[in-house]
Hints:
By secondary structure, the chain is α+β, with helices and mostly antiparallel strands.
Amino acid sequence: MIHRLVSPRAAAAIAISMLATRTLNAQDRSQSRSMVSSSQGVVASESVLASQVGARILEQGGNAIDAAIAVNAMMGLVAPMNDGIGGDLFAIVYEAKTGKLYGLNASGWAPKGLTAEYLRGKGNTRMPQRGIDAATVPGAVKGWEVLRTRFGKLSFAQILAPSIRYAEDGFPVGEVVSVYWKDSEEALRADPATAKTFLPGGKLPLQGDVFRNPELAWTYRQIAAQGARAFYTGNVAAKLLASSKTHGGTMTAADLSEYEPEWVTPLSTTYHGWTVYELPPNGQGIAALEMLNIMERFPLAKMGHNSVAALHHMIEAKKLAYADLQRFNGDPRFAKIPVAALQSKEYATQRATQIDARKATCMVPAGQAEGTDNGTTYLSVVDKEGNMISFIQSNYSTVGFGAGLAVADAGFVWHNRGGGFSLDADSPNLIAGRKRPLHTIIPAFMEKGDNKIAFGIMGGWNQAQAHAQFVSNIVDFGMNIQGALDMPRFSKETFPGCDVNFESRISQAVRDSLAAMGHQIVMRGDFSSTRMGAGQAVQRNFTTKVNFGASDPRKDGAAIAELLPNRPAGGAARR
């Protein structure tokens, strides 16, 4: 071997070259941005402004639950087509001091008089998707109250103060929100009260226009002073009932005053060593668990991320899980739902045998389980003590602002969640008075050892399948929470058929191979929030006590960290 001396100048050049290569590799990545990392609390939402409000609540002594309610109140202001107090909410809370998970179902019920017989008598053969007969009792405010009472530290007056200020003073309309607003213009003009609130001066708010909602500020002040009773029995309730009467609805004072949310035990399954939690029916979370159980039967990690084989098996798993969702799910107070079977590994093994590795199946029947959004905001918060909340809230339909009807002089719209019911007499989801509809919105949580993640991805029937893809990105492919949200997704919106939406970042070669297998691919943009939804996530490492946050680039949001309080000028650090 011949040894050649390297000059100091050449050695330095080699070292610089190696450093440059390492730097290039570190920068040459596929995710949109870095995770937010902090020893303090982190808030992740679809709006930078709302996330900043949540971080401020943490800085003022609130905890994760207080911050989540404050963020939700802001989202009802800045994205009124997606969410607001005219809708429902669900949450999973991790309480650090007990190490326990709690589930909250704050979905409202149908008015007592809103029955299948009543709707058929009006000539309906399918559930109305708009108008007052699509509106059920809004559960969000009662949900806020029971969350704050059980876990919160601050008063409603403190929590709602930022939203009241911004509702009165105004805020610039965001980019994504302005598009939804424009898409809803025709529906907003169809009702005078709705147009008055959301088309101020008869004009559509455009991106960057300052929008004010003093009517919503009034409503929030009522809740700040009186809590949920203002909404269900007080001044706000009076406006709700007047609105229902104006539009020929069936809502009564008793429908509002007698409504209560329900604390529920989260369901879970394991996926390659991680435990994943969803809420039980009437939500679609059970489908996410079944889909993961089916996916676990196949070596997705070896197949490769977004490869032909991996995508094919995940899409087919989605069809199987959703066929069962459609067949069996509903309000468990009215229907016997085979929850234990649907979330079992044994049942998933049985269902997995029906996947043909060579071709797509277009008609998937429900299994024999023994024991027989589109307009939504998802947010998550972790505080410095380790309390975490996975929180989702919705008006249901984005385009058209829920039911398309504002509550006159109250600053918010009715949701159209009743559209999730069925008029099929054989369905477990048949509408009945005081019954809750099959719901699309679902929060989620996952953990392994000292790492816990509160996450969710909004977007109608996209949600359970998007949850499963997020979990696979974390577990099978080793991504962090930001990368797991960023990655291109598929979404099959329909239950039967072989149609499936793909983001265009999935390669042409993969798409061609899947099309040859019978998948009918509908192409979407690079980052399609309308079809793929958008998610948020927070994570905590309980060993290091470091928190992380991530926000989906498909929306206008951000993960924002709480700041340490300032020391007095000239003050020294404590030792």
